[in-house]
Amino acid sequence: MIVIVLMNTYPLLVSEDLVFRSKYAALLSGAAAINTAVTGLDELTEENVGAALTGVEPEGVSRAIVTDPYGRVLYDTREAGNATGYYVFYTELVSALQGSSAVYCVYKEGAFHSSAAQPVLYRNEIIGGVYVYEYDTQQASLLLTLQNNLMTISVGVAVLVLMLSLVFSRQITSRLANLLNAIRGVREGAYNQRAVITGHDEFTQIAGEFNDLVDRLQETEGARRQFVSDASHELKTPLAAIRLLTDSILQNENMEGETLREFVGDIGQEAERLSRITEDLLRLTRLDSGVIEAPSRVAVEAVLGRVEKMIRPVAEEKAVELITICPPGAAVIATEGEVHQILYNLMENAVKYNRRGGYVRVRVEAGAETTVLTVEDNGIGIPTGDLDNVFKRFYRVDKARSRAAGGTGLGLSIVSDTVSRRGGAIRAESLEPCGTRFTVTLPSREGEEDAP
Description:
Blueprint: H1 2-38, H2 46-52, E1 63-67, E2 73-76, H3 91-97, E3 102-108, E4 111-122, E5 125-136, H4 138-187, H5 202-251, H6 257-289, E6 296-299, H7 300-317, E7 321-325, E8 331-334, H8 336-352, E9 359-366, E10 370-377, H9 399-404, H10 411-421, E11 425-430, E12 436-443
Parallel strand pairs: 7-9
Antiparallel strand pairs: 1-2, 1-5, 3-4, 4-5, 6-8, 9-10, 10-12, 11-12
Helix pairs in contact: 1-4, 4-5, 5-6, 6-10, 7-8, 8-10
């Protein structure tokens, strides 16, 4: 609308201004021609003015008037309604009789009305005035034609813009409606909902980003449901065992003391297992929430020494040789609890799933940017097809054997998440002829780890 208004005003205003300028120049030139013809007369009368202007026909002038100093008309070119002998007091003529030239031009009623006046001087005294007038319909007609053409173009442009606006608005509205429907579907829990928008514009990019987000939400929801299902199953198993054992005790009034102690001991083991599962779930919840402690430089040797003291009795019980190699200056950027958790989980698994007479070797290699922790054993090993899944929550290579060893299926997942949060990496590989090696890489300098 602003463009259309400008189209219908600015060109017309510029055209009018150009016409006014040309009129001013033409009228002043016509008035000057008449003024020059009567210049030299010491007094203006009807006779000498008429004689002086005989044959003088200035161009672009519809009417010319010459008056004496008091405004009485001495000469008038108009035939009908001739004003000779009458007094006239046009505004421009009054200004001229007072000594100032004046020009006036206006467009009205389909014509340009232009007038100009100049004083007639003799020895620096005003002896009369010259007034010229023009009534021009030709240029006014051209201006009116221009105005009509601009109006026609404006109407055409307005109709075209309206049609294009309707088309574009329908396209935009339909795309937005498609996207909104998809958003509402996802909000209601339909994670299979997708926004189908074709093209190569920003709406298509938004739809693509939305679909990627929904894919991640669907994966997260699937993982959450699987996690809840697995957690419920893992919690249900020790609870069912505790309930079975307690029911057996309650139903057997004459149970022997040794059998009773055995049942109570089994209940304690199941309760301890339940406690470990709960603690591991709490650790995973803290990791998932993203609220973790600020890291610092942790000396690996001291933490490894404490973990070794805790694991060695279990290793000696299974006749597993425990070997640790760590340079004094080795350090990582993490928390002491995290380093302890990583080493304890990896070393405990290596001992628990080892064979009698086996070994567990822990090696720490300190570098300028990273520190590498390696835990390897010659135990039962992990099938190659399961290496990519051992870090998933509740995943077990051998479920029966893992439960018998007291595992929760969460230890390696906790280790993997902890290492990832600190900007590190963990890798599992099978050894020949048997055994497994876990390699953990953690940053050893400030700024290398991910922000908490």
